[in-house]
């Protein structure tokens, strides 16, 4: 069963194969980075020529429509969409800081957090998350 990831702006598929591809910009340079589609796996493939170190803040954009993926709700985070083969879908919200392991899968029903820097409770997803 494969989860698909989409751009929230153009709905283009961001994981055509095994990796999620995002355009990443830092200090006037840009590159395509490959991310694991597996929640909680923070292994990222970065081109050698792209200087990136821990705590660098980057800007993610869609490789298809080039629009900024910075979250409207929290500028420290980026946001894309996901869909499961079962038809469930929601948002993936993740940190824009390299090495900061904080990811949330947000659906109407629940928020699942991944990564050692993620908050485990008291998460407020601006009303898009679980309705209590
Ligand atoms: Zn797009």
Quick structural summary:
The protein has 132 residues and is mostly beta strands. The chain has no helices and nine strands.
Would you mind describing this structure in some detail?
The chain has 132 residues and is mostly beta strands. It has one domain (4-114). Helix content is 0%, strand content 33%. It has strands at residues 4-6, 20-26, 29-35, 44-45, 59-61, 77-83, 89-95, 103-106, 111-114. It has a five-stranded antiparallel β-sheet, with no helix packed on it. A four-stranded antiparallel β-sheet has the order 4-3-2-5, with no helix packed on it. A hairpin with a 2-residue loop joins strand 2 (20-26) and strand 3. It starts with a strand and ends in an 18-residue tail after the last strand. Bound molecules: zinc ion.
Q: Which range does the strand content fall in?
A: 25-35%
Q: Tell me roughly what share of residues is in helical segments.
A: under 10%
| Tally of strands | 9
**Class derived from helix and strand content:** mainly beta
Count of the domains: 1
Instruction: Compute the separation of the termini in Å.
Output: 29 Å
Report the sheet with the most strands, covering strand number, pairing sense and barrel closure. 5 strands, antiparallel
Task: Output the helix-strand order.
Answer: EEEEEEEEE
């Amino acid at each position: 069963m494969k989860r698909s990831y989409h751009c929230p702006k153009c709905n283009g598929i961001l994981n055509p194969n095994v990796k999620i591809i995002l355009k990443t910009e830092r200090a006037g340079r840009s590159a395509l980075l490959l991310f694991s589609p597996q929640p909680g796996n923070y292994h990222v493939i970065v081109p050698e020529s792209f200087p990136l170190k821990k705590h660098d803040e980057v800007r993610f954009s869609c490789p298809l429509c080039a629009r900024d993926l910075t979250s409207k709700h929290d500028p420290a985070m980026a946001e894309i969409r996901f869909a499961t083969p079962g038809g469930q879908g929601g948002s993936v919200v993740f940190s824009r800081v390299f090495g900061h392991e904080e990811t949330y899968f947000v659906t109407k029903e629940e928020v699942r957090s991944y990564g050692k820097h993620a908050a485990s409770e008291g998460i407020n997803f601006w009303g898009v998350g679980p309705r209590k």
